[in-house]
Structure formats: C-alpha cells, structure tokens
What we know:
Blueprint: E1 5-9, H1 31-42, E2 50-51, H2 59-62, H3 68-76, H4 82-89, H5 101-120, E3 126-130, H6 151-163, E4 168-172, H7 179-185, E5 191-198, E6 225-230, H8 237-255, E7 259-264, H9 283-291, E8 299-303, H10 309-323, H11 339-352, H12 398-410, E9 419-423, E10 437-439, H13 445-453, H14 463-480, E11 484-491, H15 494-508, E12 513-518, E13 532-538, E14 551-555, H16 566-580, E15 584-589, H17 597-607, E16 615-620, H18 624-635, H19 650-663
Parallel strand pairs: 1-2, 1-3, 3-8, 4-5, 4-7, 5-6, 7-8, 9-10, 9-11, 11-16, 12-13, 12-15, 13-14, 15-16
Bound molecules: 1-({4-[(3-aminopropyl)amino]butyl}amino)ethane-1,1-diol (X54) and zinc ion.
Amino acid sequence: MASGTALIYDEEMTTHKLLWSDPICDIEVPERLSSSYEQLRSYHLVERCVHVPAREGSEEEILLVHSLEHLEVAKSTQTMNEEELKRVSENYDAFFFHPSTYRCARLAVGATLQLVDAVMSGKVRNGMALVRPPGHHSQRNAANGFCLFNNVAIAAEYAKLKYGLQRILIVDWDVHHGQGTQYIFEEDPSVLYFSWHRYEHQEFWPSLKESDYDAVGLGKGKGFNINLPWNKVGMGNSDYLAAFFHVLLPTAFEFDPELVIVSSGYDSGIGDPEGQMNATPEVFAHLTHFLMQLANGKLCVILEGGYHLKSLGESVCMTVKTLLGDPVPQVSGEMAPCLSAVESIQNVRAAHKPYWKWLAYEDTSFLQNLSTKSHFLKTANSNPSTEHESKITNNNDTVKVDRFLELHMKNILFPVPPIKTATTGCEGSEHFLSEHVQLVKEMDKTEVEALVSGFYADLVKDNKTLLSLGSMFVILDKILKKEVCNGIATSPTAALSAAVALRHSVRLGFQRVLCVFVGDMQMIPNTEDGKMLIINICEKEQSGKTSCKHYFSLNWKEDAEGNDFFSAVLGFILPVAYSYQPNLTVIAVGPNRNLGISGISLLVALIQGLAESRIFAVIEDTEISLMQNVAKLLVGASTPAFGIYVPPTQEKVNRIKALRDQFQQEWKMLQCSVKEGI
Ligand SMILES: CC(O)(O)NCCCCNCCCN
Ligand SMILES: [Zn+2]
C-alpha cells in the first residue's frame, strides 16, 4: 500500500514577474510561492514530505492540450524586450509575460506531471505541487487570468495516455471559474470537472454565462461538468462543507475516479482580495480529507490562485498536514450555510438530476423549470440577516487579516499526538500492530468496579465484561489526554461498553460526544441534554423510541450487491455530525450488524474529520475481520476500499429526505434546498 506525501517546489518558478504597472495582474507575485514554502518549513512539514524534483514539461506534453500556435507564441517571448512583452501580453485577458515566463510555465507543467508519476507509480500516496504561473484559466489557444499552460488539464490528459485511466476527477476550489479546464473537457465523460466560484449572477470575472450551474457539459460529456456559482461574497466554512456533502461527494463516489487532481486555489480563503470570502484555513484540511477517501487515496494537489500571502500560506499548510495523515482540526464558525449558498446547491442538484443515479429520487419537482432562473433572483436583494456578516469588513485590510489569522491559527495547530491508535491486546490485534499502535495495559478489577459503580453496575456481571471495560477506560483516558489520536477495543457486549464509554466520556469532561451505533443497540443511554448525540443505524425501528434532536434511529438494511450507504453518510450522518461539532466520536458495532464492512469503513473513514479525529471504536468481539479493517483505517495504514457503489433505492432516499426535512432547522448542515415561499 503506497504511503508518503510528495512535495514539489522549485524556486526558479519565482523568476516570472510583472515588469510594468498593471493593477489587475500585480497580485500574482513570486512571494506567493516562496512564502508558502517558508510557512511549510516553519511548521516542520517540508522534512516530513518526500521531495520530488520539478522538471520541464516537454513541448509534446504541452501539445496534449494547447495548439502549436499557442506554444510558439509563448516560446517566442523568451527573447523579447519589455515593450514587446507588454504588447504580446495585451492580446490576452489578465496575463503578463516576463522573459522567464515560458521557462517557469514549463516547470509548472513538469512539476505537475512529476507529481502524477509519483502518485501513479506508488512512490507516494498523495502530494502537492507548489507552482506558478497557475493554469486553470488557460485555454487551447490562449493565456488568461495569470495562466499560460493549463497544468491540471495537461496532467489529466497525460494520466489518461500514460496510465490508461478512464475516470479522472478534477476538483477546482479556486474562487475563480476554471473556464479553461471546462472548455478542454466539456465533451469528455472521462474527466469530471467540479468548480465552485464567485459569480454574483455573472457580475464577477470572467463573467461568463457558461460558468453558471446549468453548464453541465456537452454531448457525451453531459453531467461531467459541475459549476457551483457563489452569488454572494462572504461564503464560509459551512457553505463549502455543504457543497461537498450535498453536491460534490455523492457525485464523486458514484463516479468512482481512479485519480483525483485538485486545482487548488486558496483565493477562496479568508482575507483574499479577489475572493472576499470568509472560509478559514482549516476548512481546506476537511476538503482534503474528504478527497483522500477517493481513488484509493491517489490525490494530486496543484496550486492555482491565492493572493493574501498569510492566508495562502496557512491554507497550504493545512492541506499538506492533512495529506500527511495528521488529525483534522476542528472547523470553526457556525455550521449553517447561508440562503444564497443553499439556493446554488439546490440549483446545481436540479441541473444534474438527469445525469446521476444518486439524484434520481431527489425531488426537485417544486423547482420551476431551469429556464426561469429569475425565480431565484429574489435573494439578490435578500435581507442581510440570511447572509453571512463578513468577519473581516474588507479583505483589503491585510494587516487586520494577518492579525486575525495569527490568533485563529494559534489554537488550531495542536501538536500531533505521538501515537495514532491505542488498543487492548484484543483478538486479531496482532495483525496491525506497528509503531503507530500502542498496547494499553489492563486496568485492575477493583478500579474498574469503582468506575462502573455509579451506573450499570447491576449490568456488569461477568469478569470478561469487566476486563473489557477496564481496557476501554484506559484507552478513553489516553484519547482525552491527547496522548493518542484514537483507539479501538473489542467487547463481549458492545452495546453495554458503548453506553459506559459515553457516560464515562461525559463525566471525564467531553462536552459533546457523538455516538454512531451500528446494529441492535439494546440499551439507549439518555442523551443528557445534548452532551451526547446518538445515531443508531439499525435494521428496524427501536421499540418505541422515535427520532428526536439528539437521538436518531436510521433504519438501513445493507444492499446485497454492494455498498449503498454513501447517501446516508453524506446526506445525513456527516451533516448532522458537523452541525453538532462533537469533541469525541464513539463508533460502536453491536451484534447482528445490518451494514457491510465497506459501509462501516466508509463511515469510519469520513467521520475522522470530526473531533480532531478523536475516535473511540468498540466492536463486538465476534467481528474479527471488521475489527481489523476499522483498526487499519484508524492507524491510517490502509487506503480505504468501500466496495461496489450501489445507488440508493427510492425508499432509502425518502427515509433520509424525511429525516432531513424534519431536522434541518435543528441541524442546519442538512439544508440542501430552499422551500418555496419562505
Ligand atoms: C489562478 C486564478 O484563478 O487565481 N487567476 C485569477 C485571475 C483574476 C483576473 N482578474 C481580472 C479582473 C478584470 N476586471
Ligand atoms: Zn483564482
């Protein structure tokens, strides 16, 4: 199994720079690259990565996407003087040439391809390339928006050719629409292009009609181009996460890419003069973590934009930290997407309904047909309360943003726990022990009895249960003290152990404990006014207990053909969990589980984004192979395998929709449509 994270950086790419005054292009400065690299060094992240050198992209590789004419024009600029450079630059929208631009652009292409090779050859699992000039605006025959060659588009064509790939996902989280990439793959069903971008109803650059949500691709490519326009500035963490839960991730898992490439622009982050958005650097750790669950972890992150140096640097570090497998920091801010964001999410889901199975039963019926887009213009003048009040009044106040970020990042970059996973010497653990795993000693009986005496004492009869509780307490303590990141234990009665673990965690001081219980829960602890939130995934309604704000019973029967649990995890469990913002997650699998190992693995993999990846897993001791799968995921030893994708049935979609409709006011991350008339 490939491991390791590549970092590609060559300071020669800092020689390209603007030689004359141009208020549009003067933000694309060489320091974008050097200060990002310095930030990575200051957090000791460079030394943890595998260094892969850049190289020059060849002319042949550039011609995979660009015309010979475009290549020749670019090549001819190397020997031009400033006046000639200025004249050539004026042929393009927002581009500048320097005598070294051509060389730098070829290095940017080559660095990108080096990263694709390192990942596809298994030399590393994933990686990041810090490159400039960026690429996603450049087109077959034109430079545009600071971009000369389309690095990411060339990488996709290169990967198809060299590795015979048939499904590549490009995620473009830059705040500008990568229209170049869209044009290149518009008719190509083997490349799924997703972009969100500041749009403001076509007001914002590049102000194209084809950047709107109804540009779904052409011909055979229909459905493989996804545009999510942001029609207001000030979008934040919750808007970005909602876009992943309700648009990108369900589509990405159905598409099942063999490789994921990110057009990683950080001008969608707070403080950036171009984006004017509010998302804080740690959100990129979450976005990266989600994409690492696709394509067996094969993820190539390529720098695009990002013009506030401090915001850019912090976001780059959050991305690389996550690629390295570090715990994902708690995401800040109110977990409630704004009305405008939900509208855009609803529109793009409606536009793509004809092309994706996961959307087949989502009813977008009450939407008027898409031609009457004016229907949603009503929020163009919506009352400000439903939009995010922008934390930073104007992003141009760089010093103010620097200070905000200084404070904000202080309590985020916690020390990485020395050990990933603690476990007892339980059945089957010998298979995954490594330097990342710590065996915990048993607790002695009297100590356990003392701890359990408060409650459930009558339930704890036999020695075996007592001992399993003992090791559980030791693991929980280590997680609480942040000596380990997560832990796993087996139990003869997982339901009892989970209940005891929940009570113990609350008593130890965890304020919000999320418990996801798979199987027959037998006993349901009371959720103590919100200190716990329980999601029970069971085969049948628990006797009498109906769902309420802090207790959900989600009926689910594993599909015989494969894994149909994606819609439940992405459309319900994660939105509720992110709304709740737990500081500990307990995952328990009881007897007669109703989910396959791949469904449970998906749940464990995705839920690691919560509670700073603090997870305690307790598994019924009869489930040896499940235990090993979960343990490997917690250690980070294996890239996830989630089985054969099966779309949800109408009945299952309706069950999730019913829960969503019922609880979307309590847990606002569930929102993915605006009801008529409110
Ligand atoms: C890589 C990137 O997406 O960050 N390039 C952004 C280019 C912004 C150009 N702005 C032109 C404004 C004209 N009024
Ligand atoms: Zn951009």
